[in-house]
Amino acid sequence: MKLKLKAVSPKIGRELPWPQRATTGSAGMDLSACIEEDIILSPRQLVRIPTGIAIALPGPEYVALVYARSGLGIKHGIALSNGVGVIDSDYRGEIQVGLTNLSDKPYTIHPGDRIAQLVVTPVVLPQLEWVEELDDTERGTGGFGSTGQ
Question: What is the number of structural domains in the chain?
């Protein structure tokens, strides 16, 4: 599978790297902040950070998912404002990352900082079947915490 990437900012490939995996075993490609100056993210603030790139997935059987970088979350309380970003196969605009600061301290995002990671994965496109009843299972309708701690 080939993923087409387009620079929507002249900084990409010059001042900022193209998305890349940190190691050969990395599932995600790092996305960098394509911004002109530092952004101070106050506690509980929401911001949208451009990445300077757009992508073209080969078809609806693939999706690109934007995930948080674990180091930002664990060390600084910086998380994605929407949990996980979903880039549909027909979207061709710039990838932007919604971030929020869950800590009590301001956090500074510098131009070029790695702010998220992009993972491309297959999508199962099910044929929907409407039914009156679902088959029984041992768990049944037991929800949150129903299988133990």
Answer: 1
